[in-house]
Amino acid sequence: MAPVRLVDKIQTQLVDTQSVLFAFDLSAQRAALDLAREAVRELQQLHPERRTSNVYGEWLSPKNAHELSPKLQPLCQLVTTLCGQIWHDVFGQGGEHAADEFYVWQSWAVDYGQGGYAESHNHFPAFFAAVVYLEADATSAPIVFGHNAARPSLPNTLYIFPGALQHAVPHNTGRRVVVAMNILKKNPA
């Protein structure tokens, strides 16, 4: 049975709003980062085929990279733990087990290469989105939130942001390898 249609067309309108972004230096988490780098190299060998999406780069992994490579699990655990800390410390939600309220729904790795970019997009319905820079240099393209809020691509940096936050990556000229994640909350209340 077809769903009930109340209107013929849904209009989508983008609005610029101030939104929060959380940035972390993960340099002290060397073991998780090194395992993630190994995972990306292995995934590139096991899944070399070209994929199409809003990301255009040298290589894009399948969207279930965390399920394909156990070596991504420590990084995923780190990110969900930080999501729980944000939820508790910033938003005053969750109790002592706030980190257990979040899980990685999707994850993928991208090697942008020269000229790679990502069209403007968001990760809705993800509660949080995350991007971890495994490799970056001074000429790596930034991530741009909204229309002009650019944040640099720095090695070992993690950005966590609301899944509905619009963002893009301009044409890349440096080394830029990332792991991105969509994070869901187990209990949306």
TrEMBL record:
Q: What is this protein called?
A: 2OG-Fe(II) oxygenase
- List the source organism: Pelomonas baiyunensis
